[in-house]
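Posting here for the record, re: magnesium ion.
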Amino acid sequence: MAGAKVLTKKTPEDFAKMEIAGRCVAAVHDAVRAAIAPGVTTAALEAIGAEVVRDHGCRPSFLGYHGFPATICTSPNRAIVHGIPGDYVLRDGDIISIDAGAIYEGWHGDAAFTAAVGDVADEVQKLIDVTEEALWNGLRQARVGKRLGDIGYAVEATAEPHGFGVVREYVGHGIGQQMHESPNIPNYGTPGRGLKIKTGMALALEPMFNLGGAETTMLADDWTVVTADGSFSAHFEHTVLITKDGPLVSTLQEPLRL
Ligand code: MG
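Prediction output follows.
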């Protein structure tokens, strides 16, 4: 999902609105996570997500974004990101990535997670766990005095000992009054290099790791990005606000200060 790129400095008032959007996204995650089970369709997960966004007085970020037809992205198994909810029925042994964004008074929150459906192979659970760990390792670098290369390096280094493919074509991003703002935040990098992190930034970090190679391809729907080799893929994302009091992960029911 490419968007217009702007880099704006947010005020504490802006951040307060982004916290409300973030709390909405967290509520979507919780409701959808609770519904994930064998036999459930991705369309049913979409209905749950859409209802939660409405109930929070927010609007969905994704619906209509470059024509995307849903409130959440549902990306099973080999799908990395941007899967469209529909008639796919979750099966025991699947994994499913859920990405959700919400807008409150014009300000966005954006976050994603991957969950196992029933019992999954040990290596698949490891993929999920390590991708989530990589997100948190990246978030811990998202502070004033660090650079984007520190984030990317922390994420990539988490995958490396496991041999997971680190997706390079799709990256994290700045976020604010647009879902996708500057800068791009790659899941690879060199420590001490790249843009300096400053107070007033809002960043969406989103590692995507594959059980096999890093290469991706696009399905015929022109949305769903999948692994080229058919291996399973995991995706975790949070929005982090660089406040004057330090980084604040906003896409949680209780925002977390790092
Ligand atoms: Mg995102």
